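lol forgot to send this yesterday, sorry. struct tokens for the thing we talked abt
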């Protein structure tokens, strides 16, 4: 049995040799869960520096060469259109292959996903490890026992007459330590893989917050589960031995959510001589001096703060209420510890005026952050913002949070586009000035200097 786990292409399609050196950890965990049942391979087009004008033809040739029994595609909303096309491509050239889709996007709207992607046979809702294991077993036994996907927990599928049916719900995994470490071998495209590919980790699943732009709460009822500190540090040790780990990015949306656990992770990193430069994402109200000191001793290099707005009322409305001075103090404390700081901001909320957008730009550029990232509020399925937008925003061929593809504000489309452009130009000028300052101070800019201004958390589980 051969299983091919695929991340939909984006940069690959441009044919300009661009790459994204980030391993999709959701697929890596699923691959590890299947490793004893199948030959697992990963098709990650965006890690390949493809130069050419026939990207889909190249992917077709790759699919034929791999000939998987099962193709599993993981997608977020931004990559869903490419996922649909990849599934159709596989159906055309490998009609006998079982095509499964999973990930954040299809988990929020599984029935709609099946209606949109006619080449997909089964949709996995929620965590994929146990469900894909069962799907793989059922498919391997299909010649001896008829397949009835409606009996497989965690799935959505179609009946013979095309009706969408849901399998029984699958409970969330209780013990994350029971999962094998993410599988980081078996790449179809290996020639262009860089060390950065092996830098990603996650240490928890879920989130207790209910930010209106995030789909995570709709996927797991806000129940947060944690890997143990020992388990986390064991993976760091494994990455160092097998992949020469030189830098680490914790992809948890709020790495410091469980304070004592974070302190223990840092203590073990120091104790086991596994300190390594790393960066985290967190909230300003989940950071204090003791935490910062412990993380710094373990190697903390950069903090990405999810700040979002410079208006206290807007923060309350997006369910991220905190005092602006709390944010300012957290950034100042981090900078004083010689740790780089980056901030994420969004404008374009349904209630926002031009003055409020300008206020966010003023606040963002006043914090003395090393880099600022600006995004346009874009409703995604499964979020409260999606409901505020009416639940059916116009279909987008692709999603780019860096520009106003959807206008939720009281302003006209043209007016909002003009304001966003002006605010974005102000942020760009700020970032350029900070990078120039870094060059003048140190004589060189690190990779983080150049990446910070455009980086944004993308759910991987």
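and heres what i got for the seq, position by position
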């Amino acid at each position: 049995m051969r299983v091919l786990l695929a991340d939909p292409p984006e940069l690959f399609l441009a044919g300009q040799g661009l790459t994204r050196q980030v391993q999709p950890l959701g697929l890596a965990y699923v691959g590890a869960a299947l490793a004893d049942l199948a030959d697992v391979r990963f098709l990650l087009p965006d890690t390949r520096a493809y130069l050419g004008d026939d990207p889909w033809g190249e992917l077709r040739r790759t699919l034929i060469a791999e000939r998987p029994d099962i193709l599993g595609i993981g997608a977020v909303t931004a990559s869903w259109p490419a996922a649909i096309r990849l599934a159709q491509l596989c159906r055309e050239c490998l009609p006998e292959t079982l095509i499964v889709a999973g990930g954040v996007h299809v988990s929020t709207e599984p029935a709609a996903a099946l209606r949109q992607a006619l080449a997909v046979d089964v949709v996995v809702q929620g965590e994929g490890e146990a469900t894909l294991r069962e799907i793989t077993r059922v498919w391997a036994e299909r010649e001896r026992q008829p397949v009835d996907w409606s009996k497989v927990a965690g799935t959505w599928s179609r009946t013979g007459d095309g009706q969408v049916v849901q399998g029984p719900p699958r409970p969330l995994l209780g013990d994350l330590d029971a999962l094998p470490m993410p599988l980081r071998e078996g790449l179809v495209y290996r020639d262009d893989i860089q060390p950065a590919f092996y830098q990603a980790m996650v240490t928890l699943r879920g989130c207790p917050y209910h930010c209106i732009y995030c789909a995570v709460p709709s996927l797991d009822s806000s129940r947060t589960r944690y890997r143990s500190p020992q388990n986390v540090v064991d993976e760091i040790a494994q990455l160092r031995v097998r992949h020469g780990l030189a830098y680490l990015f914790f992809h948890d949306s709020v790495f410091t959510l469980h304070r004592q656990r974070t302190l223990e992770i840092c203590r073990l990193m120091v104790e086991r001589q596994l300190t390594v430069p790393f960066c985290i994402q967190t909230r300003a109200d989940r950071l204090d001096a003791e935490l910062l000191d412990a993380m710094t001793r373990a190697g903390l290099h950069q903090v990405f703060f999810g700040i979002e707005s410079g208006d206290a009322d807007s923060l309350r409305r997006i369910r991220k209420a905190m005092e602006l001075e709390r944010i300012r103090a957290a950034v100042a404390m981090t900078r004083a510890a010689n740790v780089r700081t980056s901030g994420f901001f969004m404008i374009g909320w349904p209630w926002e005026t031009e003055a409020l957008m300008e206020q966010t730009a003023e606040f963002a550029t006043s914090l003395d952050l090393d880099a600022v990232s600006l995004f346009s509020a874009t409703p995604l399925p499964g979020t409260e913002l999606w409901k505020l937008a009416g639940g059916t925003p116009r279909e987008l061929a692709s999603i780019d949070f860096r520009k106003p593809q959807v206008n939720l504000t009281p302003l006209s489309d043209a007016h909002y586009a003009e304001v966003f452009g002006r605010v974005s130009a102000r942020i760009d000028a700020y970032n350029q000035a900070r990078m120039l300052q870094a060059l003048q101070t140190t004589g060189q800019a690190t990779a983080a200097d150049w990446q910070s201004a455009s980086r944004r958390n993308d759910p991987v589980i």
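The mean pLDDT is 92. anyway ping me if u want another try
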